[in-house]
Design a protein that fits this description.
The chain contains four helices and eleven strands. It is an alpha+beta fold. The longest helix has 19 residues, at 49-67.
Length: 254
């Protein structure tokens, strides 16, 4: 029988030994997620006042999921390129992510924001009600693959260790550093809260060992308590996300 507590202790020890961590470093661990999950990718101008109403459905679903210990993981990509919007430095990377879906499914005619759940073509929508339906469907499907995670955050760098229970050649690993919430003043003067904003994002090919470690930038001003790291495995032929997990220090709705 798999001993998740024992594995968690082992993984922490591995991270500390591999990176020379000190007591001042932030070390986060997430054992293998065997529960249904919903990765909800949102592409749009997240700093537009009009975006807020569309995003409420995802924010509410994620908050409700935390209370019920479900894995609903929004990844909100700012593809507007506005200089005052976080993270404008990731504009090219975030647009490349959306273009990957556009080329796969010919999405050029859609208005933003666009919602995609677990990389499924049937989930693509701009309508909040359809997002709810896609999330509910995803949470009825137990994943056949799992990911264990370890994250060490030191100053403005995060080292992510992942361990898959499988290897498939047509699989890529997505790693998103997400800012959980921040106050924001929109161009029309209204204030609000931006949630689940992707601040850094990378895609990697899955190593044959099913394991790996990558170093990514943590934007200036963000602390470990401000962020969560989401890692997922995605089929490159169909786009389907087949496994996912998250490391966080506190619930995302706090």
């Amino acid at each position: 029988m798999f001993n998740s507590r024992g594995y968690q202790v082992f993984l922490i020890a591995l991270i500390l030994a591999a990176t020379g961590s000190s007591r001042a470093d932030n070390v986060l661990v997430a054992t293998a997620n065997e529960q249904p999950f919903a990765i909800v990718e949102v592409f749009g101008n997240v700093c537009s006042p009009d975006y807020g109403n569309s995003a409420l459905v995802v924010d509410y679903a994620a908050e409700k999921a935390q209370k019920q210990k479900q894995q609903i993981l929004p990844l909100v990509f700012n593809i507007s390129g506005e200089s005052n919007c976080p993270d404008s430095n990731g504009f090219e990377t975030f647009n490349a992510r959306f273009e990957e879906y556009q080329l796969r499914w010919s999405l050029n005619s859609l208005n933003s924001p666009v919602f995609i759940t677990n990389g499924r073509q049937t989930s693509v929508t701009t309508l909040p009600q359809r997002v709810r339906n896609s999330i509910n469907l995803a949470l009825k499907t137990r994943p056949q693959r799992t990911i264990s995670l370890g994250v060490k955050i030191k100053k403005q760098a995060a080292t992510i260790f992942y361990d898959m229970d499988f290897y498939e050649p047509a699989v890529q690993i997505g790693i998103a550093l997400v800012e959980k919430a921040r106050s924001y003043t929109f161009a029309d003067g209204r204030t609000g809260v931006l949630r689940n904003i992707v601040r850094n994002f990378h895609l990697y090919r899955l190593d044959k060992s099913g394991k790996g470690a990558v170093l990514i930038r943590v934007p200036a001003g963000l602390r470990a308590d401000d962020i969560q790291v989401v890692v997922f495995a995605q089929k490159t032929d169909t786009g389907q996300i087949i496994a996912a997990n998250v490391c966080r220090t506190t619930p995302a709705n706090q």
